[in-house]
Design goal:
heterodimer; A: mainly beta; six-stranded mixed β-sheet; four-stranded antiparallel β-sheet; 0% helix; B: 113 residues; mainly beta; 56% strand; globular
Chain lengths: 115, 113
């Protein structure tokens, strides 16, 4: 069975600080997909990124960057120069290609960015 | 136009009652899901339908019964509500099964008194 661990339950930073959210996953499958979703205080869940297991290239999108390392089974998310609007719960998720789209979510990391 | 819409957004009811939550997507997606988010924000899949067929049924009490009249709709009916059913229920859809991105509805907050 697959598992996703987000060890950081809550993180608090001051605006403009950089912050990294950790995600460690477990699976025996060789083909899988990793995701990050954001849930702001308004409650909706918003997709941020998807990565497949064969693509270890890091990705940068504006202030957001993702570091995927198969050797450590990690898919970490860094926000550079954080802003108050980044305050949200962030979820890491794992989906296997074989299990009909069932996504296993981590428990989430609540990020608070203070002005 | 809302891509995945759920109604109602809020639902407050007494223990023992039966209630339904409706979900509709206008994205043309083949697969729809119900997820439950508890008070600690943990997200767990409950059901998944692909083209009106049930493909994922997690360990959910029989009191929960999903129904998909067509591939654009997935409703959730809950019988004999219990206090522990209080949660936010999210509907989601994706183009196919497999590793597709989930598009979520805004959630339906169910409070059982």
């Amino acid at each position: 069975a697959q598992k996703v661990t987000q060890a950081q339950t809550e993180i608090s930073v001051v605006e403009k600080e950089d912050v990294t959210l950790d995600c460690v996953y477990e699976t025996r499958d060789t083909t899988y997909y990793l995701f990050w979703y954001k849930q702001p205080p308004s409650g909706e869940l918003v997709f941020l990124i998807r990565r497949n297991s064969f693509d270890e290239q890091n990705e940068i999108s504006g202030r957001y960057s993702w570091n995927f390392q198969k050797s450590t089974s990690s898919f970490n998310f860094t926000i550079t120069a954080s802003q108050v609007v980044d305050s949200a719960v962030y979820f890491c998720a794992l989906t296997l290609n074989t299990n009909a789209g069932k996504s296993t979510f981590g428990d989430g990391t609540t990020l608070t960015v203070k002005p | 136009d809302t891509a995945v819409s759920q109604t109602p957004k809020y639902l407050v009811t007494q223990m023992g009652n039966d209630k339904s939550i409706k979900c509709e997507q206008n994205l043309g997606h083949d697969t729809m899901y119900w997820y439950k988010q508890d008070s600690k924000k943990f997200l767990k899949i409950m059901f998944s339908y692909n083209n009106k067929e049930l493909i994922i049924n997690e360990t959910v009490p029989n009191r929960f019964s999903p129904k998909s009249p067509d591939k654009a709709h997935l409703n959730l009916h809950i019988n004999s509500l219990e206090l522990g059913d209080s949660a936010v229920y999210f509907c989601a859809s994706s183009p196919l099964t497999g590793a597709n991105v989930l598009t979520f509805g805004a959630g339906s907050r169910l409070t059982v008194l």
